[in-house]
Design goal:
The structure is a single chain. By secondary structure, the chain is of the alpha+beta class. The strands form two sheets. It has a seven-stranded mixed β-sheet with strand order 1-2-7-6-5-8-9, with helices on both faces. Helix 8 runs antiparallel to helix 9 and helix 13 runs antiparallel to helix 14. The radius of gyration is 29 Å and the shape is elongated. The N and C termini lie far apart (102 Å).
């Protein structure tokens, strides 16, 4: 009887995936078109689009947009590596978003802004979410599943791109896979360049203090989601256009900030402070570009007074030591001692003790700087007791060892 029944099927019947249901156009579509937005339709719905072309000579603050092309040429001619360097044939997308919130699955991207170089201009393209039902259409129309480019943002690594990945993941069964792109985040460079030199590093503050651009009639960023949601609810796009201009200025400033940062990294700007150029020298040192680091730091020590150049002497000393130029390292560490913060001074004293003990074999001088370090630890009242005790043990060991060597 079992033979007659045959084998029991082990395969599960395939579940038919429901076809994507294209959402209906919003009732305000025509109204938004009359305001100057273009309707783009694809397989997933509609997207509103705005495009503006800028000639290379367009002035944004202190810079013309063609300054970006000059910056790329500088990187082409450079004899050192840097993570912000671009090739002349590299496709670049300046990228910024506007969202309905700061985090959470319920946060939508309602504006994708791109600015890229064409043969004879810069082209701004903004895609606006028709309503949340058309989100797949917005993401698909960005062509980020198709393009390979270097994406340049401001805080995009931490915010804009992760938000995009989250929204894309929610449509992964519908959309082509999002491509991984090379990413340059200009917030990171701003922190590197202006650490301890600027109180605020919001893009608007950088524009005003470094790029010569002041916004007139701009909306506060925190109002953007409220304005968008109101435009969707009422169908009236007037205030939404101000959000588009806000995004437009963000993107234009990315171009000039990249140009300005490049000029600084090549020391073409003479108006920056000793702190900024010291930060640049340290950055090159962290990238193991020692020759470039020494060049920048030596310029700081030559052009600024001892108080302003204290940290430059310290970082220059580290580079000299790394390059086995021990006498120059000692001179630079000594020059930094009275002009750096106590923790940095303690490290400089330690390095001097090490250099005199191991490289110069001058145990008297090694002992002197060791005693100076111990005294600094004992006299500083700002450090925690536990930390001072830990340091004291290490320094006492050095003192004892040097006493035996004398």
């Amino acid at each position: 009887m079992k033979k007659m029944l045959g084998k029991k099927s082990t395969t599960q019947p395939k579940i038919q995936q429901p076809a994507y249901q294209k959402p209906a156009k919003p009732s305000y579509t025509e109204q938004w078109e009359k305001a100057g937005l273009t309707v783009v339709e694809n397989d997933f719905g509609i997207v509103f689009k705005r495009q503006v072309s800028y000639p290379f000579s367009y002035q944004h603050g202190d810079y013309q947009l063609q300054s970006f092309l000059d910056a790329v040429q500088k990187w082409q001619a450079a004899d050192f590596d840097h993570p912000y360097a671009l090739d002349s044939d590299e496709r670049v997308l300046f990228f910024d978003t506007e969202t309905t919130g700061l985090k959470g699955v319920g946060t939508h991207i309602f504006l994708l802004g791109f600015l890229e170089v064409t043969a004879d201009s810069f082209m701004l393209t903004q895609y606006i979410l028709a309503d949340p039902a058309h989100e797949a259409a917005l993401l698909f129309e960005s062509k980020l599943w198709q393009k390979t480019a270097t994406v340049i943002t401001y805080n995009g690594k931490s915010f804009d791109w992760p938000q995009l990945e989250t929204r894309w993941t929610l449509h992964q069964k519908t959309l082509p896979k999002l491509r991984t792109q090379r990413h340059i985040d200009l917030l990171h460079s701003s922190k590197r360049l202006w650490k301890n030199d600027m109180e605020r590093l919001k893009l608007k503050a950088v524009e005003e203090e470094k790029l010569g651009f002041s916004r007139v009639g701009d909306i506060p960023g925190y109002l953007a989601p409220i304005i968008y949601l109101d435009a969707v609810k009422s169908g009236i796009p007037d205030a939404l256009l101000k959000v588009l201009y806000h995004n437009e200025w963000d993107l234009l400033s990315l171009i000039t900030l990249y140009s300005h940062s490049t000029h600084l990294l090549f020391e073409d700007n003479q108006e920056e402070s000793a702190k900024t150029f010291t930060n640049i020298g340290k950055w090159y040192g962290d990238l193991k570009e020692s020759t470039q680091s020494v060049k920048v730091l030596e310029r700081v020590t030559a052009q600024f007074n001892e108080l302003e150049a204290g940290n430059a002497h310290y970082y220059l000393a580290l580079q000299h030591k790394k390059n086995k130029r021990y006498s120059e390292a000692i001179d630079a560490f000594v020059a930094s001692l009275h002009f750096v913060q106590p923790r940095t001074k303690l490290h400089a004293l330690e390095q001097l003790a090490i250099l005199y003990e191991h490289q110069m074999k001058d145990y008297e001088q090694a002992l002197y700087y060791t005693q100076e370090g111990i005294q600094l630890i004992q006299n500083n009242e700002q450090w925690r007791v536990e930390q001072k005790q830990k340091w004291a043990i290490s320094w006492e060991k050095r003192l004892h060892r040097l006493g035996n060597k004398k």
